[in-house]
Write a structure and sequence with these properties.
Beta-lactamase, Lipocalin, 2 domains, nine-stranded antiparallel sheet, 12 helices, 22 strands, 27% helix, globular, Beta-lactam/transpept-like, CubicO group peptidase, beta-lactamase class C family
C-alpha cells in the first residue's frame, strides 16, 4: 500500500507556489490511490471576502459533469432502457433541429461521442426550476442548426449533452437534479457537493474570477451558467474528495455505479480527435482518452465562468487526480499540478503541450488560408508575405457576441503540415488550429479549433 503522508506534505508545500505562479486565487487538489486520499488547498475562495480555500470547499467541475451525465445514460443502457445506436427520437419523439428533417438520424452514441454535429454553445437560460433542461430541449434545441452532418467528425457539443440529460430525464421520469442525487450521489454517499446554486450556498463555496480592467483577477459577476445546460456542466460543484469518489468507482470496475464491462466500453476509443494538445487523442463514451508514454489515461476537463477543473484517471496504476481552480492561467496550472503528482507517484507525465517552433517554416497559403464558418462564428486565416499567419475570429449572432463581443485576432505560425499554433498563450497554453481534408498541397476542407469542427466556406 502506498504511503501518502509524504505526498500530503509535498502538496501542502508545493501547491501555494504553483497557484501563485499561475495567478490562481484559490485551488484545491486531491489524489486517490489504494483507497487512500491526499488533499491540499491554497488561496482564497473569493478575493472580495477573503475566505480561505479548504479541502472541503466546493468548486464547480464544469464539463467534468459530462462524465456524470454519461454515467446516468450508461446505467440505463445496462438496464435495457436505452440503446446506444437508437435515434434520439425513440426517447424524445418531438426532438428536432432548426432545419426540417435534419437531425432525425442522430443517435445516443453520437451525442456521447460529440459526433452529432449539433451546434453546441447555445447557453440560453430557460428557468431555474427542475424543468430547465426539458424547456431547453423543447424550446431552444429546435432553433439550433447542425453545423456538420452527424458522424462526419468530432465537434464538441454542450447542447448535445443537454439532450442526453433530457433523454435520461424522460426515461426515468425524473428531473436531472434528482437523477444525480439518486443514482450517483446516494450510492457514493457524497457529502460536500451541490447540484443547484441554492445547495452550494449551504457549503464553503468558491467563486470564479476573471481578469479585471488592470488584468488582475476579480470575482466574476455571476456564479453559474444557465441551469438549462446542467447536464453539460453549468452548475454541479463539489470538493475534491467527492469527485475522487466518483473516479474511484470507475477504478473499482464501476463500483456501485456500473458494471466492469460498461466501464471498459466507455474507456474504449470510439472517435479520433485532432491533436490540439488539450483533448486527448480519442473520445470514448463521454470520456476523453489520452496516451501518456504508451499508457492509457482517461479523464475530462471543465471550465465555467471563472472556475475550472481537471480530472485524470490512470487505470493501470489505480490512481485518480483532481485539480480545482477559481481563476488564473487554469490550463497551465492544472497541467503542472497533474503532471508533477503523476511523475512523483508513478514516474509518468503527460505529453508536453505544443509550443511555437523557434524557427518556424513558412505557412502554406494554399493549404491554410481561407474562411471557416460555423452557424455562429467565423474564423478567417490570412497568410502574410513573411510566411506567418493571422486568424481573425468574429461572432455572427447576437448570442455569440455575448461570449465574444469583439473580433479576436491571433498571431499564428506553422507547427507542422496540418497545424498552426498561436504565438501568444491563452490561459497558459498556446492555441492550436488543426486542418484536415483536401489532401497535401490543396486547400483544407475542415478546421478543428477549440474542440469545434467547421467547414471551409471561402
Amino acid at each position: 500500500m502506498t504511503d501518502l503522508s509524504d505526498l500530503r506534505t509535498w502538496l501542502n508545500e508545493t501547491l501555494p507556489e504553483v497557484a501563485r505562479r499561475h495567478g490562481v486565487p484559490g485551488a484545491a487538489v486531491g489524489v486517490l490511490t489504494d483507497d487512500q486520499v491526499a488533499e491540499a488547498a491554497t488561496g482564497e475562495l473569493n478575493l472580495r471576502t477573503g475566505v480561505p480555500a479548504t479541502t472541503d470547499s466546493l468548486f464547480q467541475i464544469g464539463s467534468v459533469t459530462k462524465l456524470w451525465t454519461s454515467t446516468l445514460v450508461m446505467q440505463l443502457v445496462e438496464e435495457g432502457m436505452i440503446e446506444l445506436d437508437a435515434p434520439v427520437t425513440r426517447y424524445l419523439p418531438d426532438f428536432r433541429l432548426a432545419e426540417e428533417g435534419v437531425g432525425a438520424d442522430i443517435t445516443v452514441r453520437q451525442l456521447l461521442t460529440h459526433t452529432s454535429g449539433i451546434y453546441g454553445d447555445a447557453f440560453v437560460p430557460t428557468t431555474r426550476d427542475e424543468d430547465a433542461v426539458r424547456r431547453y430541449v423543447e424550446d431552444v434545441v429546435p432553433t439550433l442548426p447542425q453545423d456538420i452532418p452527424s458522424g462526419e467528425g468530432m465537434s464538441y457539443s454542450n447542447s448535445g449533452f443537454a439532450v442526453l440529460g433530457r433523454i435520461a430525464e424522460a426515461v426515468r421520469v425524473k428531473p436531472f437534479q434528482r437523477l444525480l442525487r439518486e443514482y450517483i450521489g446516494m450510492p457514493l454517499d457524497l457529502r460536500h457537493w451541490a447540484v443547484t446554486p441554492e445547495e452550494a450556498l449551504l457549503h464553503r463555496t468558491a467563486v470564479g474570477h476573471v481578469p479585471g480592467r488592470d488584468g488582475s483577477p476579480e470575482p466574476a459577476p455571476f456564479w453559474n451558467l444557465p441551469a438549462s445546460l446542467a447536464p453539460a456542466g453549468t452548475v454541479l460543484a463539489m470538493a475534491p474528495r467527492e469527485l475522487l469518489a466518483f473516479a474511484g468507482a470507475y477504478l473499482d470496475g464501476g463500483g456501485k455505479l456500473l458494471d466492469p464491462a460498461t466501464v471498459e466500453r466507455m474507456w474504449r476509443p470510439h472517435v479520433p480527435v485532432p491533436d490540439i494538445g488539450m483533448l486527448g487523442g480519442h473520445f470514448g463514451l463521454g470520456w476523453m482518452i489520452f496516451d501518456w508514454d504508451g499508457q492509457r489515461v482517461v479523464g475530462h476537463d471543465g471550465g465555467t465562468y471563472g472556475q475550472s477543473c481537471s480530472l485524470r484517471v490512470l487505470p493501470e496504476a489505480g490512481i485518480a487526480l483532481v485539480s480545482h481552480a477559481n481563476g488564473g492561467e487554469n490550463a497551465a496550472f492544472h497541467r503542472e499540478v497533474v503532471a508533477r503528482i503523476a511523475d512523483r507517484l508513478v514516474g509518468l507525465r503527460p505529453p508536453e503541450l505544443p509550443t511555437p517552433p523557434e524557427h518556424p517554416e513558412e505557412v502554406d497559403p494554399t493549404r491554410f488560408a481561407g474562411r471557416f464558418d460555423s452557424s455562429t462564428m467565423s474564423l478567417e486565416v490570412t497568410v502574410r508575405p513573411d510566411g506567418s499567419a493571422v486568424a481573425r475570429s468574429e461572432a455572427l449572432t447576437a448570442e455569440a457576441r455575448q461570449l465574444q463581443p469583439e473580433p479576436r485576432v491571433t498571431e499564428l505560425v506553422r507547427l507542422d503540415d496540418a497545424r498552426l499554433i498561436a504565438t501568444d498563450r491563452l490561459f497558459g497554453a498556446h492555441e492550436v488550429l488543426a486542418f484536415s481534408g483536401g489532401g497535401p498541397g490543396s486547400p483544407a476542407t475542415h478546421l478543428f479549433h477549440a474542440g469545434r469542427l467547421t467547414r471551409r466556406t471561402a
